[in-house]
Amino acid sequence: MKDLGVYIVDLKEFVGSVVDQLEDFLDAYDIRIDNKDRDVQDPCAAIIYGKDYDYFSDIIISGLKKYHYFELTYDEAKHEATEIVFALLSLLMQKGHVPDIEYDFNELVDSIEKTYEFWGLVSKLKEKYEKIDDKLAKYIHEHKMMEEIKQDIMDIVTIDPKKFPKYKIRQRIAEKCAVDYVIGCEYDCNKSYWENLEALKRENEKFFLNHPEYE
Q1: How far apart are CA 137 and CA 120, in angstroms?
Q2: What pTM value is reported for the model?
Q3: What is the pLDDT of residues 197-213, one digit of tens each?
Q4: Which residues, 6 or more positions from 201, have their beta carbon under 8 angstroms from its beta carbon?
Q5: Which domain of life is it from (predicted)?
């Protein structure tokens, strides 16, 4: 038994349910995999047997380990399902089976993906959390950039203290330049970083000179 997030999953049972999907696929196309351990006289014998079963078991469990046994997003489940189907295709070719154009591997991928969903291994919340994480990372990056630009404007690109004797206004100009550059993307890609800052500085100085009410 393995604790996968909020679910308790029997890994052997889960592996077995995925392998069942592979066997249903093989059976639908009347494909048999040569295996010396399999009793060919038994019509009920499993198609995937012995070392072949272990081969798929290792692939399925190693896929879950990548996500530390926690829930997957729909894209991750589809990726894992695709990897399993590629493993089946590889095994078939090793055993001398040439895939037929009629084989519907896409349907098999969808079937395995649904098995992940059935076992509670796919989470909509994880996708939402990842989107939030992306937004947070973007916000942190933008905030850091704006702080650096504000510092550049204040320390390196000189704002005339005679025009703006109040430090607070000079700070507002620097903040406005940073927002324009990072959020508004108001810069010329043909100019250097410092040329763009100088242009933004002049533009925002003009704005604050014409709008003394903002002081």
Answers
A1: 28
A2: 0.56
A3: 888 888 888 888 887 76
A4: 153, 157, 159, 173, 177
A5: Bacteria
